[in-house]
Structure to design on (369 residues):
């Protein structure tokens, strides 16, 4: 039975970085704004939540206690002075009450699994209305002495469109309300306004180490072959490592095999299905879309390892041998760049069927070299 239940107060990773951020409270110099920046799955959100609990925990030494009334309310996302902002759909097709219900469900999952990525379908922006409401609440008088905390996940989503939300946040950061700390979290620092970056203490997260991932997954998953497979394939990304564990080796192999088969041989029907399927995914479920291409990218890396005489993951041995004998001169580096581009294409609002067609043709060209 898989049990992922663990709250963010128990997450012990990125220890060097954690010791550095908590110094600010110990030295009584808590900043008014931080940016937790780094690759997807490097425990930024989990540690941002933990840090927010730490700042308001009266029992904390090195860690938030997790059991005082402040910690408990934060873990349940019910602390009146903690505000969590995530991208939400601007789409009128989803009613406000539906958005709220999805968010409540997502928060419940996040509360039990700090590595769950909150995802509301079609959410790409943080609307200005949310920032206006936040501003009102922040400038209201606080009923107790707790620090007000604003967590903004996927903070780069402030800058989509005309960046009015980013500018509104900037105004608040320029004259921050008393006793308030902003913790912005983003995988895409370069997309944030330089003026926002200049207001933040930037904490750069490296990818997680294999042993950090293995030790965390092993706390609830007893199949050590699966844990090793997930850690190896996830390349330091805990979101993906968990997902690989949940899906199991067989399901993951199916996704990869199907992608590899489609890309290896031109087949009109397969290509059409691929283009339809991934265009739809790019539109409706960007997380799945990215995950699939991430798997393919990891697989490519394994194929490259095998090509240069390093060991590949055992589960891949056969399919990689077949691939390398068929395409001995394939330009894996170029294909890897193409995968990178196709992963980012939906974010750039490109027309996906054309992008995916070009991707198939380009990959084919580089396979045959
Ligand atoms: Zn506490």
């Amino acid at each position: 039975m898989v049990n992922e239940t663990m709250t963010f107060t128990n997450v012990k990773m990125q220890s060097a970085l954690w010791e550095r951020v908590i110094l600010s409270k110990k030295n009584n110099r808590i900043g008014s704004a931080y940016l937790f920046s780094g690759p997807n799955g490097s425990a930024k959100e989990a540690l941002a939540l933990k840090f927010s609990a730490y700042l308001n925990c009266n029992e904390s030494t090195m860690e938030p206690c997790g059991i005082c009334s402040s910690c408990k309310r934060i873990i349940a996302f019910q602390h009146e002075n903690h505000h969590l902002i995530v991208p939400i759909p601007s789409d009128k097709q989803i009613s406000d009450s539906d958005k709220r219900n999805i968010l409540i469900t997502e928060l419940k999952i996040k509360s039990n699994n700090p590595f769950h990525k909150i995802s509301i379908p079609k959410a790409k922006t943080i609307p200005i209305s949310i920032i206006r409401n936040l501003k009102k609440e922040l400038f209201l008088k606080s009923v107790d002495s707790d620090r007000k905390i604003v967590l903004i996940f996927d903070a780069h989503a402030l800058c989509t469109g005309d960046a009015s939300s980013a500018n509104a946040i900037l105004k608040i950061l320029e004259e921050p309300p008393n006793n308030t700390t902003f913790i912005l979290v983003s995988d895409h620092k370069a997309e944030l306004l330089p003026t926002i970056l200049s207001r933040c203490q930037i904490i750069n997260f490296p990818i997680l180490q294999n042993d950090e991932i293995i030790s965390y997954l092993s706390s609830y998953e007893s199949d050590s072959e699966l844990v090793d497979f997930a850690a190896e394939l996830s390349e330091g990304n805990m979101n993906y490592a968990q997902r690989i564990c949940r899906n199991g080796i067989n399901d993951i192999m199916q996704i990869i095999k199907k992608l590899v088969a489609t890309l290896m041989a031109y087949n009109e029907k397969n290509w059409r299905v691929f283009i339809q399927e991934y265009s739809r995914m790019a539109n409706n479920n960007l997380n799945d879309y990215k995950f699939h291409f991430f798997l393919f990218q990891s697989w490519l890396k394994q194929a490259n390892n095998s090509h240069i005489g390093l060991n590949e993951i055992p589960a891949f041995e056969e399919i990689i041998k077949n691939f390398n004998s068929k395409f001995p001169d394939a330009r894996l580096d170029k294909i890897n760049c193409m995968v990178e581009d196709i992963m980012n294409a939906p974010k750039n609002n490109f027309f996906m069927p054309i992008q995916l067609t070009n991707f198939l043709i380009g990959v084919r060209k580089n396979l045959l070299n």
Notes: The pocket of zinc ion is lined by residues 57, 59, 64-65, 68, 70-71 (CB under 6 Å). The chain has two domains: 8-204, 210-368. The chain has a mean pLDDT of 91.
